[in-house]
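cron nightly-structures :: item 1 of 1
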Amino acid sequence: MERPVVSGTACDASGARFTVVGISNTPTTDWAEVFRALAGTDLTLVGDPPAPAGPPRLSMTPPSVLDLNAYLMYAIGKAARRRLTERLAAHNLRLWHLTVMAMVADLGPQMKTLLAARLDMNSSDLVKIVNDLVRTGHVDCARDPVNRRRILVRLTPEGRAYLDLLNADIAATDDEVLAPLGPDEREVLASLLRRVHHHLEPGPAGTVHHETARFAQVPPSGSDEDGRIDWTRSAAEIAGFVETRRPPRPHAFTHHAGRRLDVLAATVSRGLYSGEPGHVHHHEDEGVVVVTGADHLGGGRPGLVLHRVRNEHGAEFRAEEYFTRGGTGPGHLDGPG
């Protein structure tokens, strides 16, 4: 039976140290003679010694579950989350830190209770995350200038710059996970995932959406999909965007009650409006106004006044008529279409 009978350290001609362990199944081996022979061969170490081979990888996915989309989304999501968590950990952050910063960046200053509700997060956990971000200077807490009794969580200029840096860094996670897909395939996949996400997590009532679960066709490359309105942009940007979407180009569009709605004419409001981007107000003087952009200062911002719209059947309406006909007012945008 093999057994070690001698061990020690030695140096090669360059002075590099290495460990020597002699093993023999012959108890009468003359190790002094062995090492004298090795010493005359001018041995030199090249590179690191090979690592011991680990046990063979046995884990695998049962072939039958690869036909289950829910399982595939779970498995891919688990792998993507692990990679994202590792990248955030390199910045001493967790996924909740990124999520809170992104929510405040997208929707503007918010109360902690509202943030917790929107993120479906325990209030005490939310407070800990906000405190972490306050200590690092990425957010601060200030009184609402409109209602001094409320305390708002705000993203600081340093926090906004850091969020941009984080987004650029963790974008590499997409490249790792989606490496087998080309650019066009990634766009189609993203569109499908957003539709499923909206189906499972519909937005608050009174909001027009970027995606719809009823939009049955996946738009081919080069279609009118680039006409989709992004309500997180400023009202001026969106009004300019609507103006540029003239025939022969498809019109700018959004969704109302799960159905496509083309925006044919719109202008920037005179008044200031608060709320989530995409929320619809019915103003006595200005008519139908959609909240746009992020309210970074907590005092409201200009909205987009809709003048003319067209439904998915091609019928055109004054915006006020469309949103009030049949008793479907701005507060019921997520009701049945």
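cron nightly-structures :: done
The chain has nine helices and ten strands.
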